[in-house]
Amino acid sequence: MNTETKTKTNLDSVFIEARLWFDKTYGNTYHSVRLEANGLSIGQVPMTYGYGRHYEQTALEYLRKIGLVSPEIRYVSDLQRNGVIVYIAASNRKKSELHKALTVQQNFSNLLHIEELKERNK
Fold first, then answer.
1. Residue 2 confidence (pLDDT)
2. For residue 48, is pLDDT > 80?
3. Which residue from 71, 73, 79, 88 has the highest number of Cβ atoms inside 10 Å of its Cβ?
């Protein structure tokens, strides 16, 4: 990883697991996202409105919010251009199979992973 990459991200790799659901009644599309960075679980976003590949933007917003990606990174392709390996798995699911909100213990565990990633790349 070059030094330019480290200033924009603290990541070597990102795994985005997106679960998609289509509400036939109202015709809306929703998704949820689970994220791993450098092999560590860092969080998930529960059911969110968005169609197509909007889950990529949801994942990037989360990464920016927790401070692992700088605001200049606007697209997944920007991550890749900066040397981050991005894995994406997207699948259509039932509404009950979308990612749920995390428990306090899970959030705390993810917070520890996030802080570890930030410290590792200082």
1. 45
2. yes
3. 79
Residue 52: left (phi > 0), alpha (psi -120 to 50), or beta? left
Give pTM, 2 decimals.
0.87
Q: Which residues contact 119 (CB under 8 A, 6 or more apart)?
A: none
SS3 108: helix
- Cα four-point dihedral sign 109, 68, 80, 98: positive
Handedness of CA 78, 80, 86, 90 (dihedral sign): positive
Beta strand pairing call for 40-49 and 28-37: antiparallel
pLDDT tens digits, 60-117: 999 999 999 999 999 999 999 999 999 999 999 999 999 998 889 999 999 999 998 8
Given a contact cutoff of 8 angstroms between Cβ atoms, the answer to whether 43 and 62 are in contact is yes
- Residue 26: both structure tokens together: 């109202």
The string over 73-98, giving b where at least 16 C-beta atoms fall within 10 Å of a residue's C-beta and e elsewhere, is beebebbeebbbeeeeeeeebeeeeb
Number of domains forming the structure of the chain: 1
